[in-house]
Amino acid sequence: MAKAAFEEGKLSEDQVKVLARHTPAHNDAEVAEFASHATVSQLSRTLGSYPFQGEGPKREERREVSFGSREDGSWGLRAILPLDEGLRVEKALEAAREAEFRTRHPEGEGSPFEISWSDALLRLADQSFDTEPQARPAERTQVLVHLNGGSGEAHLHLGPALSAELRRLFSCDASLRWVLEDQGKPLSYGRKRRTVPSHLRTLVEERDRGCRVPGCSQRRWLVAHHLTHWEDGGSTDPDNLACLCPAHHRAHHLGRLGIEGDPEQPEGLVFTDPLNGWVLDACGRPRPPNRPPREAAEDLGVRPKTYTHPRGERLDRAWVSFSEAPGSG
Q: Which of 191, 206, 280, 272 has its CA nearest to residue 241?
């Protein structure tokens, strides 16, 4: 319904974007009708907080970064990120702090604690202007995770416990090192090895030529994803590996992107939105028209429509109600 309303010119692109982000499939028609009378801001506030039945947890995570000059002449920075993304920033700050210490004390004298986190942040900013080394995502920043082979529980080194989703995200395409313990005391460490060897990764990257998710154009910093995780007995072979960009790899392991099928076939993988049950269809890159927009639209069979902007009257969200999912009552 939302797609048809958009094609007929009843909904704007911004309105449809809000609908696609928040609306379950079974509410598509009635929400599309509601959207034709609501502004984009009204849709965002209403749909973003509406308790749709059977939709599961919200997909959005808190990700906020703000910075700027302050009235006292200083500059402030505030950031809130999901745990795994925040750890990437933390590891980068730790590496920058160590590098700054080595620069100031090449002979190793002194204490690393004299280098503040402010110094590390400035060092990190300076490094961003340099040419980034050609390293794979799992090799640029590494997080040390302790895994209990018996229970499957994992925690960060000197840090909090990890959820099962983050544990599988960290270990899907990673460098691993086994630790032999006796009653919780480490006795010896094995050599570091990768879950996906470099020669096999090269073959998979050459086959996939980028992230396999429809519409994603990322070709660098790819992750070799196990369709069946190695924890579940999945093999590290081309027929169980597919290239994903870090964002889509993370979305899959957090339950926001379904992936199944045969990666060996060009169109063998099916990507779905688990929240709404929608299938992500493959599509080519859009080509800009070489004629005036109205003439180009007529050539494609797109009839000109007159979009009516919502009136923007005050909306009392307490009066907004949508039907429940079938069988949820």
A: 206
In the prediction, which pLDDT does 179 show? 67
Check whether residue 147 and residue 184 sit in a common domain.
yes
pLDDT average, residue stretch 294-303: 75
Q: Are 146 and 124 contacting, i.e. CB atoms less than 8 angstroms apart?
A: no
Of the listed ranges 53-62, 219-228, 297-306, the least confidently predicted one is 53-62
Query: What are the tokens at 80?
Result: 């809130």
Strand-pair partners of 145:
156
Asked which of 130, 150, 171 is the last residue of a domain, the reply is 130
- Structural domain count of the chain: 3
Location of structure tokens 């080194």: 157
pTM here? 0.59
Kindly report each contact of residues 20-23 with a partner whose C-beta sits within 8 Å and lies 24 or more positions away, as own/partner. 21/47, 21/59, 22/47, 22/48, 22/50, 22/52, 23/47, 23/52, 23/276
Same domain, 293 and 264: no
Structural contact between residues 322 and 28, judged by C-beta atoms closer than 8 angstroms: no
Helix axes 83-104, 164-172, angle to 10 degrees: 50
Q: At residue 310, does pLDDT exceed 60?
A: yes
